[in-house]
Amino acid sequence: MPFAVTATLSMLVVLGIMVLVHEFGHFIVAKLCGVRVEVFSIGFGTRLLGFRRGDTDYRLSLLPLGGYVKMSGENPAEQRTGDPGEFAAHPRWQRMLIGLAGPFANFILAFVLMTGLYMMHNEVDQYLSGPAIVDFVPQNSAAAHSGIQHGDRIVQFDHDHNPTWEQLRIRAALDVNSTVPITVERQVNGETQQISTHLFLADSSKDGDFDIETMLIPRFQSTPLRVQHVESGYPAQKAGVKDNDYILSVNGVELHSTPALVAYLQQQSGAPATLTIKRGTQVFPVTVHPIWADDGAGHMGYRLGFNAYLPPFKVEQLPFPQAVKHSVTFNLHNSGYILDVVHRLFTRHSNVQQLQGPIGIARQTGEAVSMPGWQPIIGLMALISLNLGIMNLLPIPILDGGMILLLLVEGTLRRDLNQQLKERIYQAAFIVLILFFAFIMLNDVSKLSLFSKLKP
C-alpha cells in the first residue's frame, strides 16, 4: 500500500478515536447533569449516516478531522426558552464539569493506552543490562574534569562493582549532589589499565530529576549509528546523506547514538563536521553544516536533520502496579514537555512553524504504523491524546478552556455576560482559529518534499 494511503487512513482512524473519546467525555457528563444532547457527531459538515436514539442524533459527518457534541441552548446566539434541559439552564459548576470532561477523557485514554502497553509490550533498551561503557563525555562536564573519556568501561561506581547502566543510574540517583569514587577500565597502547578518580554528581535539573546520562552518555550499541530517515531541506540531506547510511564517525570520533551525536554537535558550537559514511561497500566522507533549530520537542540546538534507527531493545511485560507507575510517569513528563512548548510559543522562544497539522500528523501516524510492533503507534496515540486534552484547555473561546474561562468570569461577576458580547468574542475567536488552522496547513504543505527544492 502506498505510504500516502497508509498515512491518510491511519490519521483518520487515530483522530477518529481521539475525537470519539473526547466528545464522549462531554456527552456522558452532559447526560449525567441532565443536559439534552441534540447531536453527537464524528466529523464536521454534511451528515453521511447515523441513527437517532432518544433526543440525540448520533452521526458520522463528511469531514473526519474533528467532531462535536451539540447540546441544547449551548450557543450564545440561541434564545433561552427556560427548558430545564438546556445547557445554559444548568449551574455554572455543572457546565464547567461538562467542559472539563472532554480533555479529562483524553488524559484517561492516554493513561489507559500506556498502562496496557507496559503490561503487554514494554520495550527496554538492551544497554541498560549490559556493561557501563561510556560513548561520549561532554566537554567541561564534571565527568570530563574527572578524567573520564569516551570508550571507558566503568568497573566500579561507589560501592557497585562492574555495574550495569541500570544499576549505575539507580546508584547515581541515590548519590546525587555528592562525590563518589569511580574506577574505569581503559585501553592504553593496547594494554588494559584501570584508572581511579572521583566524580561529583551535581544536580542541575530544575525538577530534581537527576540523570547521570547527561554527563556520561552510554554506548547504546556496539554498531555505528544508522540513518532511518533524512529530513528534507536540512544539512544532512544537503550534504548527500541518505536513508540507511551508517555514520562511522564524526570528525574522527566514533559515536554510537543520537544523544552522543547531539552532545558532540553542541560542543562544537555549530562548526562544520566531517561525517564518515558507509553506504553498502562504499566508505566516504561528507561535510555537513549544522543549523540551530528546534528538535520537534521544544528543545533548541544544533541539528543535522535525520532520524536514526532505535538501539537494540528487549520486550518485557510489567505487572499492573508497575505498569500504572510507568504510565503516570510517561504522561506527566510528556504533559510537561507539551506545556513547555506552548509556553515557548507564547513567549516567542520557539518557532510556530514547528507545529503540525493534519498532514504532519498523517506523516507521523503513517511512519508509526509502518514500524514493527505496537509501541510506536500506541505511544503516538497517547501523545496525540495528551496534546488534544491540553490544547482544548487553553483559555481560548470556542475551545473548552475558553468556555470555562468565561464561566469563571461570570461566576466572579455573579451575573451572565451580555449575549452580544459573548457572540462577538466567539466570532472573533472562530476567525482567529480558522486563520491559524490555515497557517498550520500551509506550514504542513511547505514541508513536503515536493516543495523542498523551492527553499534556499
UniProtKB/TrEMBL annotation:
<dbReference type="InterPro" id="IPR008915">
    <property type="entry name" value="Peptidase_M50"/>
</dbReference>
<feature type="transmembrane region" description="Helical">
    <location>
        <begin position="425"/>
        <end position="442"/>
    </location>
</feature>
<feature type="domain" description="PDZ">
    <location>
        <begin position="208"/>
        <end position="281"/>
    </location>
</feature>
<feature type="transmembrane region" description="Helical">
    <location>
        <begin position="6"/>
        <end position="29"/>
    </location>
</feature>
<dbReference type="Pfam" id="PF02163">
    <property type="entry name" value="Peptidase_M50"/>
</dbReference>
<keyword id="KW-0479">Metal-binding</keyword>
<keyword id="KW-0645">Protease</keyword>
<dbReference type="InterPro" id="IPR001478">
    <property type="entry name" value="PDZ"/>
</dbReference>
<dbReference type="Pfam" id="PF17820">
    <property type="entry name" value="PDZ_6"/>
</dbReference>
<keyword id="KW-1133">Transmembrane helix</keyword>
<feature type="transmembrane region" description="Helical">
    <location>
        <begin position="97"/>
        <end position="120"/>
    </location>
</feature>
<keyword id="KW-0472">Membrane</keyword>
<dbReference type="GO" id="GO:0016020">
    <property type="term" value="C:membrane"/>
</dbReference>
<feature type="transmembrane region" description="Helical">
    <location>
        <begin position="393"/>
        <end position="413"/>
    </location>
</feature>
<keyword id="KW-0482">Metalloprotease</keyword>
<protein>
    <recommendedName>
        <fullName>Zinc metalloprotease</fullName>
        <ecNumber>3.4.24.-</ecNumber>
    </recommendedName>
</protein>
<dbReference type="InterPro" id="IPR036034">
    <property type="entry name" value="PDZ_sf"/>
</dbReference>
<dbReference type="InterPro" id="IPR004387">
    <property type="entry name" value="Pept_M50_Zn"/>
</dbReference>
<dbReference type="GO" id="GO:0004222">
    <property type="term" value="F:metalloendopeptidase activity"/>
</dbReference>
<keyword id="KW-0862">Zinc</keyword>
<keyword id="KW-0812">Transmembrane</keyword>
<feature type="domain" description="PDZ">
    <location>
        <begin position="107"/>
        <end position="188"/>
    </location>
</feature>
<dbReference type="GO" id="GO:0006508">
    <property type="term" value="P:proteolysis"/>
</dbReference>
<keyword id="KW-0378">Hydrolase</keyword>
<dbReference type="InterPro" id="IPR041489">
    <property type="entry name" value="PDZ_6"/>
</dbReference>
<dbReference type="GO" id="GO:0046872">
    <property type="term" value="F:metal ion binding"/>
</dbReference>
<comment type="similarity">
    <text>Belongs to the peptidase M50B family.</text>
</comment>
